[in-house]
Specification:
33% helix; 24% strand; 6-stranded mixed β-sheet; alpha/beta; globular
């Protein structure tokens, strides 16, 4: 089953002006159930624009977007929410800082359900959340009543990952979700990501600047440049690839040198 289908997607910002920029050009991409796709590319390559187009942050100019057999092309982001889980680059996004850990998890688990006057978190739910939090290995299962705003960036990202997977979305979008963390914490959060995706058999798309992470994570990798997908590698070939080989491939396909400082520092 195809979870995601992008057909001939185009997006232009500031059309017919001196600032016109073609952000996405004839993008065609299909993801099957269980695919874990990483997206790499330099600054302005179109990575975030691609993710935001899928999420419905802004409409595309042409083409179609289908998620789990639902044509969502013309739908705003909130009407795609039942199909998509998302973790942002900023750890401050994705959770409610003034609410407790268990309350945040309750919000996530009840997303899309009818609201009633009875809202409190039940003891049964708390026990379930404790078991789920234990998997993270961060000790959060003993801090259910703590305000989320008091957690570290890594703890908040791990919690947001858990929240985004509670209802097993058709598609999980990871928007450079380890970029704002220190290297040790980023590795921990990425390990948790892999575990959650595998355990729930999720279909995931991860935008990253880190070439090593892009190669080591998931079963597919695409590289973008100037709004186009210029290269794809998957499965065993992907696992055997090195960062240097990936950069050489970029140069061969695009005809230019890879020049993204953040990505190069991540080598």
């Amino acid at each position: 089953m195809n979870v995601l289908e992008l057909k001939n997607i185009n997006k232009v910002f500031n059309p017919d002006t001196i600032n016109e920029r073609k952000a996405l050009i004839d993008i065609n991409l299909t993801m099957e159930e269980g695919d874990f796709l990483t997206v790499i590319g330099g600054n302005g390559a179109g990575k975030s624009t691609l993710l935001n187009a899928i999420a419905g942050v802004w409409p595309v100019d042409s083409g179609s977007i289908t998620i789990a057999d639902n044509d969502v092309t013309g739908l705003p982001d909130f009407k795609r929410a039942s199909l998509i889980g998302r973790v942002f680059q900023d750890p401050m996004l994705g959770s409610a800082p003034t609410m407790q850990i268990d309350e945040n998890l309750a919000l996530a688990s009840r997303r899309g359900n009818k609201r009633t006057l009875k809202w409190g978190v039940t003891n049964k739910e708390r026990e379930e959340y404790k078991e789920r939090l234990k998997v993270l290995g961060l000790g959060l299962e003993d801090r259910l009543s703590q305000k989320v705003g008091l957690l570290s960036g890594g703890q908040r990202q791990a919690l947001t990952l858990l929240m985004s997977s509670l209802q097993k979305p058709k598609l999980l979008l990871l928007d450079e979700h380890t970029a704002a963390l220190d290297p040790k914490t980023a590795k921990k959060v990425l390990d948790i990501t892999k575990s959650i995706v595998k355990e729930n058999n999720l279909t995931a798309l991860m935008v990253t600047h880190n070439m090593k992470d892009a190669i080591a994570t998931g079963n597919r990798l695409i590289m973008m440049n100037e709004g186009r997908i210029i290269f794809e590698v998957r499965d065993e070939e992907k696992q055997k690839m090195t960062v240097d080989e990936l950069m050489k491939k970029f140069s061969a396909v695009s005809g230019e040198e890879f020049a993204d400082d953040q990505s190069l520092l991540s080598k």
